[in-house]
Amino acid sequence: MNEIKFNTGVIRPVECMREGWELIKDQFWLFFAITLVGILIAGSTMYILLGAMFCGIYYCLFQKMNGQPVKFEGLFKGFDFFVPGLVASLVLIIPSIVLGLLAYIPLIMMQLALMRTKNPNPDEMFAYFGFFAVEMIVLWLVLGTIHAFLFFAYPLIVEYKLSGVEAFKLSAKAVWQNLGGIVGFIALEFVLVIIGYLLCIVGVYLTLPIMFAGAFVVYRKVFPPIGYRNVNPPPPDAFQGAGSYNQSI
């Protein structure tokens, strides 16, 4: 396979989220059902089917963007990508398990020590909760970073039929070179989640299809369709020095 090229500096988080909404708004409830069922299946299988379900969701988004009919059963096309999807997901699942165990073992030991004391020292209690808070922050930062580098992996698997390892490596490379835009988009997703929680938690589920669609728009801007030709003008300094010649000749 030829080298897969990608764009940089093209991510505008709010614009991408808006375009994602425009993409799915006429079939919002269908995509709501697709994303909700996909997330529920992934969670109920201890995330073993996370990759397959995410690939299925992106498969439906590809269908929508390409003007093809979108059906609910398209979600299950993700099983065609089960192995690469699982491999890509393990990049997140394994560290989650390992770091989770490493985080909770000292907490359990501290809790047992406090339980043996009838009148725990307030300073010890404060230290316990402080340690717990720091551990959770570090844990979420590490897992959030890994998740960010997986940002493009699943649509890459669907579109280019890459292996899980290839998709993760290319995704991480593209994310690193578009880091500002990716961080901005993830921050926007976080804001939507907060708004969803404020709407009696139910709103979180309503934002899921919009966030997936927005992420898909981000993907398509960074990885344009095969055969796409970039018609944007080059930067002003692209041809700096062109046409000059060595005066000493």
Brief characterization of the structure:
This protein has 249 residues and is mainly alpha-helical. It has one domain. 68% of the residues lie in helices and 0% in strands.
Structure description:
By secondary structure, the chain is an all-alpha fold. It has one domain. Helix content is 68%, strand content 0%. It contains nine helices and no strands. It has helices at residues 13-24, 28-44, 50-65, 82-115, 122-149, 153-160, 164-177, 179-198, 202-222. Helix 1 crosses helix 8 (179-198) and helix 3 (50-65) crosses helix 6 (153-160). The protein is elongated. The relative contact order is 0.16.
List keywords for this structure.
249 residues; mainly alpha; 0% strand
Secondary structure: helix percent? 55-70%
The whole-angstrom Rg is 22 Å
Task: Provide the structure class.
Answer: mainly alpha
Instruction: Report the strand count.
Output: 0
Shape: elongated
Mean pLDDT: 86
Poorly predicted parts: 229-234, 238-249
Q: So how many helices?
A: 9
Beta-strand fraction estimate: under 5%
Characterize the biggest β-sheet: none
Number of domains: 1
Distance between the termini: 44 Å
